[in-house]
Amino acid sequence: MNSKKRIVILGAAESGVGAAVLAKTKGFDVFVSDSGTILSEYKAKLNEYQIIYEENGHTPELILSADEVVKSPGIPFTAPLVRELTARNISIISEIEFAGRYTTAKKICITGSNGKTTTTSLIYHMMKKAGLNVGLAGNIGKSFALQVAECQFDYYVIELSSFQLDSMYNFKADIAILLNITPDHLDRYDHCFQKYADAKMRILQNLSLDEYFIFCSDDEVTVRELKQIVLTAQKLPFSVQKKEVPGAWADSDNLHVDMNPGGFEMPLGSLSLRGKHNTYNSMAAGLTGSALHIRNEIIRESLTDFQGVEHRLEPVLTIQGVDYINDSKATNVNSVWYALECMQRPVVWIAGGTDKGNDYSELFDLVDRKVKALVCLGKDNTKLIRSFSGRIPLIEEAHSMEEAVLKASAMAVPGDTVLLSPACASFDLFRNYEDRGEQFKATVRNL
């Protein structure tokens, strides 16, 4: 590569620092800029590779001189500096797009409004169990770019958000998985669901006859969008409503995968992950394993012994007969729908945060049947209170995790479940959903 080509990285967190390291190892002139304070661990990595960076603000002349910009997925295209780059026709790409140029490894890519972290982790678990040389990347684990720079994996399992997909153009998956498309992040898409759906469908770009597309044929939006495109990749649908061959399906008792000669089936009761949404996730993983020619017994074993994902329906403790469950990763309404659908006991629900254009009406039926009390945890709880007043007998407000857990525990009786499932982003009171979940667990343990 031309060593004089200038790559500017906007954002110095996991993806940005990874992209910077990869660019440096490929001989580019690299500059990193972050509007906030860079964490010490990321500064150490930048210093290790002698990469020039700035923090707590952007210097326009150092950025606008770029030949290409790698933008953090958290920075919107409406940011003034990004608008200026676009106006100057300076290429803006994602870390995933950049890293994809420098690896020949097979890439299994997962997106969806819900379930992508669980499914990504489950597929990674399966591939590790099968003895494959595989990395875990994207919206989970270490950045894809950093691993391309420092590791030699034969496969990558990559979780992709809509924000990452927005800035991907030539990147191509070997196996693309789309779990579902339901409203999320509408604040980033002009409150237009079609724009968000278009972003999710970008996971299909550049697929050819040799690749696979695994998708939920029960998801009406996905099926509708597929009718609008010509897709040459091999389709592998999964469903709980109908038999799919080739594909996967579930009846009342068993999960079936029918792709390679023979296929396999297993009892739904043996799956480590329970609930309808996890049946979908397990089918997607099972199809992936078959597409990779992993032995059926390894696939079955992986679906049986997977331990789940932190902050996603994570049991914390049972205290005086009350279960406490951490579902902090439920940052949209549909995630909460799945969580409530799994609940078998009366629920004291902790919800709230930064609203992303939520429509809570799809929760009304489940809330009417399962939720006895609501604690609204956020700086502004007006929308939550307005949506559920008259539906939930007890509604309280809280402005810290400690206050929320104390109020929830006071309203719970033996046989209830206190469920943190926020339906919102975390950034009003917490650093991220992980911080929110960790604070919940710590507070519960101190009860």
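the 2nd protein, sequnce then structure:
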Amino acid sequence: MQYDPIKKSLGNFFNKTPFLRKVFYRILNVLLLRAWHIYKHIRRWSKDKKNLPIHILDAGSGFGQYTYTLSKMSDLWQITAVDVKIEQIHDCNLFFQKIGKGDRVKFYVEDLVTYQRPHAYDAILSIDVMEHILEDEVVFRNFGTSLKKHGVLFISTPSDQGGSDVHHEGDNSFIEEHVRDGYSKEEITQKLLKAGFSKVEVKYSYGKYGSLSWRLSMKYPISWIGKSRWFFVVLPFYYLVIFPVCLVLNWIDVKRENSRGTGLIVLAYK
């Protein structure tokens, strides 16, 4: 199934007005469990930084939902967001200009394999990006070079325990754009240490409850839309029933220490 065209269709619909785009961001932040985990760690990290001139890189910014949330956390923070998709970068720049944040939030077309800005950033976000990039060790080195001393890298990426919905040898990835099905804790830790990071923390996300939430809120609806766009008509009624259930499942996943999981949340310190 082609996942990217469906994402593009959804983005085009919600891009019609700034209000709809904000609604889209809110939906993504609530439905996507990885956002719950990442914001949990960002809130902890930022407790003593709200009044500081922090510079953050959103590396692989996509629709810009993480950049938007970060931009609301402090008026002093400068955010640079990069992605390889020209159309999304254009749309994001236009949106942030319309809502009056264009002076401190900038989007650029860049390839993470070649992009680095020595000692420029206090923090870097890489949310569901590394599974799309074959030259991951090069990108990790670029992140290390681009971080200031004591800077932190936040990563969300599939694990090797069913990430990309691959559970057995021979399975096809649910998201066909992935170049790897997932990392083990040991592999991503060693690659980041090799890239020059001094400390790496890795935890599982999308455990038993989170994986169920993902299937109910994302996999099944997207699969239905892939078969027929008429399922768009049914989706609002489906989510009325399933949305509260997924909220509870996401909350449980964030609160508990998962011994296994199809996702990884990584914090790497310079």
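Residues 53 and 76 are 5 Å apart (CA to CA). DSSP finds nine helices and seven strands in the chain.
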